[in-house]
Amino acid sequence: MEADFWHQRWQDNEIGFHQSDINPFLLRHWPTLPLPEDAKVLVPLCGKSKDMLWLLEQGVQVTGIELSKVAVKAFAEENQLPMSCQEDNSFTRWSLPGLELLAGDFFSYQVDDEKPISVVYDRAALIALPKPMRQQYSEHIAQLLSPGGQILLLTMEYPQSAMSGPPFSVEQAEVEHLYGSSFDIELLERADVLEDNLRFKERGVNSLIEKVYRLIRR
């Protein structure tokens, strides 16, 4: 998808993908991840997700990356966070102790060698991208993680012919294709969530499965 598509969605407040509550899969599976002290967590295409606040409460350092400045400003204002703001060559950076939100192109983000990423929490990034972009995205994620780095990945599977997306259907075979050469992949949970997602049913989707994976960089 072109950047203008997402800018317009946020400008028009067409954000049906936003969750107002902490994601239940995050609550259930995060405690099972072995993490170093003071771990750094990357949340790509983070929007204004409250999951980042929950992660911050777990004692980790959180970096969220989001294309839209509207989303990042809304996150700070709605949660009444006194975040400072500064510009650099690639991003507009909002920050407070333990939390940094970067507004800009995710593919411009490079790892900080002094503070490597421990975990990528991907609830809505991979499934937000059309198929031609998912290969580029997975390769960039692999470059950002050192051996032992992890991804907590959430996907959706539904008949793609029923609606155009986003969010897109990403089946397990594609996850294995995208990440299998660099990661060990473990399926943690499979859940039928159609009854909890009325907007999918209204668009003619008759099957909706969410899957949770843990990936470990080799």
Could you walk me through the main structural features you see in this protein, from its secondary elements to its overall organization?
The chain has 218 residues and is an alpha/beta fold. It contains 7 helices and 9 strands, in the order ααβαβαββββαβαβαβ. It has helices at 3-11, 24-29, 51-57, 69-78, 131-144, 172-179, 198-202, and strands at 40-44, 61-66, 84-87, 92-96, 99-103, 119-122, 150-157, 183-192, 209-217. A 9-stranded mixed β-sheet has the order 3-4-5-2-1-6-7-9-8, with helices on both faces. The radius of gyration is 17 Å and the shape is globular.
Task: Compose a concise summary of this entry.
The protein is 27% helix and 26% strand.
Distance between the termini: 30 Å
Question: What integer value in Å does the Rg equal?
Answer: 17 Å
Silhouette? globular
Work out the helicity level: 25-40%
- The overall pLDDT average reads 91
Low-confidence parts lasting 5 or more residues at pLDDT below 50?
none
